Amino acid sequence: MKTRTHAMNIPRWSTRVLTVVCTAFLSVTTTPLSLVHAQDQTDGYKLPLPAVSEEPVQRGRYINVDGSDMYYIDQGEGGPVVFIHGNPTSSYLWRNVIPYVTVNARAVAPDLIGMGRSGKPDIKYSYDDHYRYLDGFIKALDLQDITFVVHDWGATLGFDCARLNPGRVKAIAFMEGVLPPAFPQPSYEAMGEQMGGMFRAMRDPVQGRQLVIDNHMFVEQVLPGFVNRALGEQAMAEYRAPYINPSAREPILAWPRQIPIGGEPAEVAARMEAIGNFMTETELPILLLYAEPGVVVPAQAVHWYTQNIKNIETAYVGQGLHFIQEDQPDAIGHALADWLRRQNH
Length: 345
What we know:
Blueprint: H1 14-26, H2 33-42, E1 61-65, E2 68-75, E3 80-84, H3 98-101, E4 106-110, H4 127-140, E5 146-152, H5 153-164, E6 169-177, H6 193-203, H7 207-214, H8 217-225, H9 233-240, H10 250-254, H11 266-281, E7 286-293, H12 299-308, E8 312-320, H13 329-343
Parallel strand pairs: 3-4, 3-5, 5-6, 6-7, 7-8
Antiparallel strand pairs: 1-2, 2-4
Helix pairs in contact: 2-8, 5-11
């Protein structure tokens, strides 16, 4: 029998997660990390660089949710497998994974409200806003017996949806999720001077906007910096397209301000604690896909999850950082397809 620890006990490795994130944020004024990774790959790299297609999938559809149009990819037939992205990406992130699912299932991949090709209503883009629109999207399509495939903040949303809709969700596959036990953090001080200062800056009304709105750091620095290969121009064009106008970048700024630190934002901290409890109690089949070295889910986190989630499997997909779909889509697709096949038999 597994010995479980409470989800809210913050492990020491969570400070490593924050160190890596902070390093990427600080790289705004230095050489883009993607160029460094590209150089590392060509210097003594023993295996061929992975060939990753940057062609988008066929055009998707729109559905009205609470007065705004939400864009989504909808391919294949069978039980719904719902892909949820995080910040600052879109359904485009899943383009090379979806084909592995559509052989035997229906793949549905929305763009979260305000992101990708979805509408940009005049809202705060709080966590609760995103959850409300995602919940509305799922209900508008009348999706039942859902298997979630989730990443980054999409993992938070997916686990939360499963927690609040026990009869609607049948399984969850997650990777590099913004989840317990790394979050919430007890205080800025607990995060260290540099990291705590960085997150304070993100919440500062002047510094935060300069970093994210003016410098566009999440798309121009963090995204390519957390991909092990050098993203090509086609991929970068796809990720930039929704945010050409600086006014469209408000959702990207809102996300880091939703990280619960010292109990704030209170509603997100409460949800994260509830998600942590749910993770240790649920009987749902769970698949954790992870890469080396990873960012939010390093090797130490894999151990925590396997000790604390009852019905969990893990799949190592190879070398990668945070946006592992851009480095290892085939390995993710194969592992996901095999797991789905076994869930349906």
